[in-house]
Amino acid sequence: MQNLAIAIHGGAGTITPASMTPELEKAYKQALSKALNQSYEVLEKGGTALDAVELAVVLLEDSPLFNAGRGSVFTKEGKHEMDAAIMCGRTLEAGAVAGIRNIRNPVRLTRAILEHSDHVFLSGYGAEEFARKYQIDFEPEEYFYDQHRYKQWREVRDTDIFMLDHTEERKFGTVGAVARDANGDLAAATSTGGMTNKNYNRIGDSPVIGSGTYANNKTCAVSCTGHGEYFIRAVVAYDISCLMEYKGYTLQQACNEVVMNKLVKFGGEGGLVAVDSKGELALPFNSEGMYRGYRTSGKEGIVAIYKS
Question: What does the record give as the active site (predicted)?
Answer without folding.
Answer: 174 (nucleophile)
